[in-house]
Amino acid sequence: MADITPGTSVGAVAVPGDNGDLRAVAVTVLPPGVRISERQVAWDLAPNTSMNDGPVQAVVESSGGRNLTLSINGQSVRLQVTPETPLVMPISAARSDLVVGATVLINAAPGSDGQLAVPRVTVSKDGVLPPT
């Protein structure tokens, strides 16, 4: 959590919280200098989940963890992050990291030819699983 400061790009899977804010289920912290495309869309992790991608505007300590304010397409989105929320930061990997038994998260979209295009594969390493 100490690496999350104003300007940090994050992607957060979240559910509606009790007070109208979002409660993070998982947060992906991008390495310094990496920018994320801002978006807020429905997500398929569980009912009522959303993906919330954007730079952090503000960080506020709270009794239940930290509250982040993200900037998403000109809107401020408040996000509650508890001490139990999984945090991950992607690092570079090699094809040799794709081994039998590894857990993977594959981002894919239909290409113009109808085939799935896969711009990125996230693979588990050293016991750390990809966020879902």
Describe this protein's structure:
With 132 residues, the protein is mostly beta strands. It has no helices and 9 strands. The strands form 2 sheets. The chain has a 5-stranded mixed beta barrel with strand order 1-2-6-5-4. Strands 8-9 form a two-stranded antiparallel sheet. Strand 4 (50-62) and strand 5 (65-72) form a beta hairpin. The mean pLDDT is 89.
Topology:
Layout (H helix, E strand, L loop, with lengths): L8 E8 L5 E8 L9 E4 L7 E13 L2 E8 L2 E7 L5 E2 L15 E7 L5 E8 L9
Parallel strand pairs: 2-6, 2-7
Antiparallel strand pairs: 1-2, 1-4, 3-4, 4-5, 5-6, 8-9
Explain briefly what this protein structure is:
With 132 residues, the chain is mostly beta strands. The chain contains no helices and nine strands. The model has no long low-confidence stretch (mean pLDDT 89).
C-alpha Rg (nearest Å): 16 Å
Helix fraction, binned, reads under 10%
Mean pLDDT level: 89
The number of distinct β-strands equals 9
Low-confidence stretches: none
Characteristics of this structure?
five-stranded mixed barrel, two-stranded antiparallel sheet, 132 residues, 49% strand
